Amino acid sequence: MGNYDEPAEGQMEIEFVISPFGEGNRERRKTITLFKVEPYKRVRPNGEVVQKFDWQLDISDQVPNVWDGFVGTENLANQMAIATDEAGRLYRVYTAARRRWVRLDDPDDPNRGMALQEGFWIIEFTSDGRYIRSRASNLRLIGSYGHQSNLVGSTTNLWDVDKHGNVYWMEFHPRYVEIKMAPR
């Protein structure tokens, strides 16, 4: 959890661009303020603080054009944004500076389908918040489904990490869904 007793360090202004469906639609641009380092703490269910650390969130030297823009800004549906494995390694959703919406139409009903936003990454960190590596890239982690004129539900929590550190995510196709894995 965020350690709100300590100040975050090093603000950055980052512009994100989201491309819509089809031609002729305008891109949405949004500038947000992110921190290079944020204080965090590990807390047991009983409230005991086990560890305090500074999470090194600016990984632009290792993974260009990918930013920590999901946790506090783009995660409006309160999806899973941070996970941990049994060894204490941390996994966090990052967003590409440029994302785009993709439409998957139902081959049996041209009025039904899914709208998915691609451009999300799963990044692995040490238990004290230092970058290890990118585990999955350009994922589609935000979406809606239903009839095109009335998208009725949102797709949430499309990724997970098991106790060994294997990263899983769902990949949608017009007729089926795949469960993908990046092994430890």
Molecular structure report:
The protein is mostly beta strands. It has one helix at residues 70-74; strands at 9-19, 28-43, 49-56, 66-67, 82-84, 90-106, 109-125, 131-147, 150-155, 159-161, 167-172, 177-182. The strands form two sheets. Strands 1, 2, 3, 4, 5, 6, 7, 8 and 9 form a nine-stranded mixed sheet that branches. Strands 10-11-12 form a three-stranded antiparallel sheet, with no helix packed on it. Strand 8 and strand 9 form a beta hairpin.
Instruction: Report, as a whole number of angstroms, the end-to-end distance.
Output: 24 Å
Poorly predicted tracts of residues? none
Total beta strands? 12
The average pLDDT score comes to 83
Instruction: Please compute the radius of gyration using only Cα atoms.
Output: 18 Å
Work out the strand percent: over 45%
Oligomeric state, counting identical vs distinct chains: single chain
Order of helices and strands: EEEEHEEEEEEEE
What's the number of helices? 1
Helix content: under 10%
| Shape label | globular
Structural class: mainly beta
User: What profile does the largest beta sheet have?
Assistant: 9 strands, mixed
